[in-house]
Amino acid sequence: MKKFRIFFILFMLSCDVLLIGHFGACIFVGLDLLLWRLQYYGNDPQYYWLSNNSMYSINLIDGPWIQQYVYAQSFSTGTLSTIAPGPFGKNPI
Q1: What domain range is 36 assigned to?
Q2: 76 vs 1, 43, 72, 82, CA distance in Å?
Q3: Does 2 fall in a domain?
Q4: How far apart are alpha carbons 5 and 27 in whole angstroms?
Q5: Residue 78 lies in a domain
Q6: How far apart are CA 23 and CA 72, in angstroms?
Q7: Where would you tag: which of 16, 36, 58, 93 has the fewest CB atoms within 10 A of its CB?
Q8: Which residues neighbour 18 within 8 Å (Cβ) at sequence distance 6 or greater?
């Protein structure tokens, strides 16, 4: 019973990370497309997050929404998984 409980907790934690990553991805893509539509940084796509990315060599601003979402989901989930828990004192050992 204890193994099932641990498995269930880890499963729910993974689902929570993916759900929060989904909302983060929607926010990332939505804001970047809004800034592009308003020409906030001008007409140069290198200043926008979807076109200045490291995963794809193509400009994702004009790409299909599924590529935009997959890139944003991987970025958001990766960002969530690498956040440090906070400052710790030095270990005296």
Answers
A1: 15-73
A2: 34, 26, 6, 10
A3: no
A4: 33
A5: no
A6: 10
A7: 93
A8: 77
**pLDDT by 10s per residue, the chain, length 93:** 888 999 999 999 889 888 988 998 899 889 988 988 898 888 887 788 888 776 666 777 888 888 888 888 888 887 777 765 555 555 555
d(C-alpha 37, C-alpha 41), whole Å: 10
Query: Is 86 part of a structural domain of the chain?
Result: no
Q: Does 33 reside within a domain?
A: yes
Degrees to nearest 5, angle at CA 30 with 26 and 35? 155
DSSP string of 35-85?
Answer: HHHHTTT-S-GGGSTTTS-SS-SS-SSSS-HHHHHHHHHHHHHHHHHT---
Query: What SS3 class is residue 2?
Result: helix
Backbone angles phi, psi at 39, to 5 degrees: 55, 45
